[in-house]
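Researcher: Please translate sequence to structure tokens.
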Amino acid sequence: MQTLHVLTDSSFNKDIHDPSLENLQAAVGGLIQAIDLAPELTMWCNDEGKLNGLPVNPVATALWTRYFGETDVIVGNVVFTGGSDEEGETTGLLNEYCKQIEELCTRYSNAMEGNWTVV
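Model: Translation complete:
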């Protein structure tokens, strides 16, 4: 199952093949909260991240803003998966979402390193 683990420094990896409760909690460093951004896109974040003073995740915040406006910031590492199937089971991340999020991560990483590109 495809997932994308996005860290607060905008790096990413695909190391979570089984998005079980335990694996998701390990990836975000604590209790999890599922945020449905779209029917086929769920963002899993640390439910107590702000209370614990976790750093802002610029990529996750940018996606939050895209879907909900500038109403909040997302902190800590996050995991992106697909939505839920008819039985309520988490589905894999679609390739198109994976590529878009990877590109966003690369843009943020480049910007933080001072490598600006003109689009």
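Researcher: Any highlights?
Model: The beta strands are 4-6, 12-13, 32-38, 41-46, 78-81.
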